[in-house]
Each structure stands twice: as structure tokens, then as C-alpha cells.
Amino acid sequence: MALRMWASSTANALKLSSSASKSHLLPAFSISRCFSSVLEGLKYANSHEWVKHEGSVATIGISDHAQDHLGEVVFVELPEEKSSVSKGKNFGAVESVKATSEIISPISGEVIEVNTKLADSPGLINSSPYEEGWMIKVKPSNPAELESLMGPKEYTKFCEEEDAAH
What we know:
The chain has 6 helices and 9 strands, in the order H-H-E-E-E-H-E-E-E-E-E-H-H-E-H. With 166 residues, it is of the alpha+beta class. It has a domain at 46-142 and 149-165: CATH 2.40.50.100. The strands form 2 sheets. Strands 1-2-3-9-8-5 form a 6-stranded antiparallel β-sheet. The longest helix has 14 residues, at 152-165.
């Protein structure tokens, strides 16, 4: 948080903003981009979940952008193995010091594994959202649903536009 405040005050002092700059000498950029990572090889939902599809398994978690906006994660509720998830439907919740947010499944399928480490260490979502902080692994029932998700460039643009609107 202190780093974000420093970056914001520095950007203001340098007269930089996320919108188009009035000066042609200063490029426009997004402060949020400096702090959130978007990985190649993943697909992203507009509800800020990511999917890594490898063979017959899709790993799902929440994006770095999402965890950054949530703040410190203190509790995670996830489905049971062998349960089903449906695209666009809630499959769990993430509770942070700021709020509780539903986790929306970006694809449909059967849950084949749940990250049990999150029960004791929910902060893994903050410290490692794409690696140790994954949530569930799913056997997709309709792999074509992956095509409706955003790639890294589209998701980055989506986040920048969403942040600019707030």
C-alpha cells in the first residue's frame, strides 16, 4: 500500500496520468500496470479469474489484478472434489480484510483437485496468485468455452479501462 501511495504521489508530481497526457513529451501509461502482472499462456475472464489449460486439465485461480484490489486475503471457500462447476456461476468465495467476493467459474466441468493449502494459507492468493495460489483444477466439459475468454493483451486492456472508469 505504501508503494502504491508513493507511486501515485510521484506520478502526480511528474504530472503523469493513466489518461492521454496533454504534453506530447510524456507518454501515457497506467500506474496499475506497474503493479499487476498478466501472464502469457493463460486465459482471463472479465470477472478476473484465470485459466491455464494443459491437456485435459484446466487450473483456475484469481488474477493478480483481482487479488490486488481485494487486499489481504484471510479466508477462501472452495468446492469439493468431484463437484461440478458451471461457466458464469459462483463456485466459491474469497474473503479479504476489505470484502467478501464470489469466485465465478470461467468454464464448466468437474472439479478434480482443490488447493487444500489455501485453507491454512489463504495469503498464497496474494503472494503467488498464478502459482501456489491456484484454487481448483477442473476437467472441462466444454473446452470450446476457453475460446470466449480473453488473452493477456485483451485482459490488460480490460483492466486498464476498468480502473480508469473507477
